[in-house]
Amino acid sequence: MSHPADTFTLYDLRIEVIATDRPMVCAHRAGDWFELHGEMLRFPDGQGFPLYPLAALLPILPAKQRPTHPADWMTTDAEIACPDPHCGARFRITRTGTRTFRHDEVTLVPMPTSAREADA
Ligand SMILES: [Zn+2]
């Protein structure tokens, strides 16, 4: 699949709370979820998400948004443990689709002319 040289594609992500055989301590419930589309976090109406698990997830999400090598653990591993050592929750990250962005719509930093003309 060919794209114009000034576009790129990211995965949309869905992050869902998964129960385990250990009890949950934090204010998240099995089935709670949020999604990431580009830079936007989307939460269902009326549902929150606790700060500390969110902080643990944030460094992983930009990497999961991007295409990764099949052998890369970032491709295969999709569950993150809650950072509270007493909490049994897991958070499953699923790539749900793709979204294409144009460079000029997401940054003011110009592309090098050589990159812009790469597939012209
Ligand atoms: Zn937790």
Give a topology summary:
Layout: E1 7-18, E2 33-37, E3 40-42, H1 51-57, H2 61-65, H3 73-76, E4 79-81, E5 90-102, H4 103-106, H5 113-116
Antiparallel strand pairs: 1-2, 1-5, 2-3, 4-5
The structure holds zinc ion.
Properties at a glance:
120 residues, alpha+beta, five-stranded antiparallel beta sheet, 5 strands, 20% helix, binds zinc ion
What does this protein look like?
This protein has 120 residues and is α+β, with helices and mostly antiparallel strands. The chain has one domain. Helix content is 20%, strand content 30%. It has helices spanning 51-57, 61-65, 73-76, 103-106, 113-116, and strands at residues 7-18, 33-37, 40-42, 79-81, 90-102. The chain has a 5-stranded antiparallel β-sheet. The longest helix has 7 residues, at 51-57. The radius of gyration is 17 Å and the shape is elongated. It binds zinc ion (ZN).
